[in-house]
Write a structure and sequence with these properties.
This protein is mostly helical. The chain has a domain of 188 residues. Helix content is 80%, strand content 0%. It has 9 helices and no strands. Helix 7 runs antiparallel to helix 9. The chain is rod-shaped, with a radius of gyration of 28 Å. The relative contact order is 0.13.
Length: 278
């Protein structure tokens, strides 16, 4: 009977991450619409309790009513803001967990010291303490280290190649988990600006339509059109700027983790090569 291949932890994590994204995006849209209608569009934010009137002159209601006047583009931008916050928190927690319980540099130094002393089991114990993506790669590599070390059927070059291949395969399995959902944050940077530009154009169309009316220009419609354009511009550009910053922060953290993995893998290979001259 053919055996079913076991599902790896990384495949399970990938499935969970995809489910997370497919759940967060529609929920963010719903929350954005609810905030626009019931928080920004609350009657207490407008003169006479009517959202068609000007926002109240003082307090938080003035700001909320002003944002509401940005039009139907505002709930879309609010949804993008909520998505950015949610995915940023998710990535922060995931990447922080990937670094492990302690300093990665200290962990790599301890593993190197144990290997130089010929104590592979102690190095494996350090992996169990550290946890995270770096420790997972190192632990997988050390297990292969122990396997090939006493294998008489392989020469030194074949053993080194087997260890190096294990480092590469383990790294290939771990890194996609760190980079998952970063594409969503990167997309926010461009999409927010484009949607804000759309809102700006629509607002300016309303403003120029008010100017083009027969007789004296409609000052209320003119003001509303300009307000709509500027509010959408501010929301979109602000969200885009934060998205760019968060994307760069997370990619920088991932680069550090990748460097630590490379350093640990190089140390293991070099230690094996120095301890096995034949």
């Amino acid at each position: 009977m053919a055996q079913t291949a076991p599902v790896s932890k990384n495949e399970n994590k990938g499935s969970l991450s995809s489910s997370f994204a497919s759940l967060v995006i529609p929920l963010s849209i719903i929350v954005g619409i609810v905030i626009y209608m019931f928080v920004l569009g609350n009657s207490s934010n407008f003169e006479g309790g009517d959202s068609k009137n000007h926002p109240v002159q003082d307090g938080a209601g003035h700001v909320l009513g002003l944002i509401y006047k940005g039009g139907f583009i505002v709930p879309i931008l609010l949804s993008l803001v909520i998505m950015l916050i949610t995915f940023s928190i998710e990535r922060f927690l995931t990447i922080s967990k990937a670094t492990g319980t302690g300093s990665v540099q200290v962990f790599v130094s301890k593993v190197r010291s144990h290997l130089n002393a010929g104590n592979v089991d102690a190095a494996l114990a350090e992996c169990d303490k550290q946890k995270g993506s770096v420790a997972n790669v190192v632990k997988s590599t050390l297990n292969r280290y122990k396997l090939v070390e006493n294998d008489p059927s392989l020469n030194k070059e074949q053993k080194l190649l087997a260890i190096q291949k294990e480092v590469e395969e383990s790294t290939t399995l771990e890194l996609p988990m760190l980079e998952q959902n970063l594409v969503v944050i990167a997309t926010m940077a461009s999409v927010s600006t484009l949607i804000a530009l759309l809102g700006t154009v629509l607002g300016m169309i309303k403003a120029f339509s008010a100017l083009a009316s027969a007789g004296s220009p409609d000052s209320v419609a003119l003001a509303n059109g300009i307000s709509e354009a500027l509010i959408n511009t501010a929301l979109g550009i602000g969200n885009s700027a934060v998205a760019i910053i968060m994307y760069n922060v997370f990619t920088s953290k991932i680069d550090k983790i990748t460097y630590a993995i490379d350093e640990a893998g190089y140390s293991i290979i070099q230690t094996f090569a120095s301890r096995h001259k034949d």
